[in-house]
Specification:
Blueprint: H1 7-42, E1 64-68, H2 72-84, E2 88-92, H3 95-101, E3 109-113, H4 121-130, E4 136-141, H5 146-153, E5 162-165, H6 170-180
Parallel strand pairs: 1-2, 1-3, 3-4, 4-5
Helix pairs in contact: 1-2
């Protein structure tokens, strides 16, 4: 957050940025679809103008990602972007709903917002780990003070936790996730 900005003002700005990203993303999809359709009709070479990262030479091999963010626009934006990069993605806006639907061993990576109502991202992650699952995790937040709190809650965790700061560019999100999953 910028100095002097309240959390409510920040969330409103953030929501507006996300809505603009979704709009632009949908414009790219529509444009890409029409170009590919035209190229199919002309039987000419396709032009790839998808939102895949420039370093996107990998395939996900059906890597599964779970996104948990209480803001539906953000969760959907991340979901659409990561699906374009070939991942299988499930997105939830309610951490309690995640707990009631979660099955251990399904996901390769969890992308969890830290600050959510009912249960924060650390509590959710702890409950998922207690189910006997230990997938890689990336926490996403607009606030920086959570890294220390994570180390206090999970002192025995050998792997380095991934912390991403909102707002985040979609190509950067994809590259971090690929790196966490060992594609780089």
């Amino acid at each position: 957050m910028y100095s002097g900005e309240t959390e409510k003002q920040f969330r409103l700005k953030h929501k507006e940025i996300v809505q603009i990203h979704i709009f632009l993303y949908l414009c790219y999809i529509i444009t890409a679809s029409s170009i590919n359709l035209d190229n199919d009709l002309k039987k000419t070479r396709r032009i790839d103008i998808s939102l895949r990262s420039k370093d996107s030479t990998m395939t996900s091999d059906e890597k599964r990602i779970l996104i948990v963010d209480d803001e539906p626009d953000i969760a959907n934006l991340y979901k659409l972007s990561l699906e374009c990069d070939g991942f299988v993605v499930d997105a939830f806006n309610d951490p309690l709903l995640v707990l009631s639907n979660y099955r251990a061993g399904i996901y390769d990576l969890l992308l969890i917002d830290i600050k959510m109502p009912q249960m924060n991202g650390f509590e959710l992650y702890q409950k998922l780990r207690n189910m006997g699952d230990t997938p890689k995790v990336c926490f996403i937040t607009a606030f920086e003070e959570f890294n220390k709190q994570f180390r206090e809650l999970f002192p025995d965790l050998k792997e380095k936790a991934c912390f991403l700061r909102k707002p985040i560019e979609l190509h950067y999100l994809s590259s971090v996730i690929k790196s966490e999953l060992g594609y780089n």
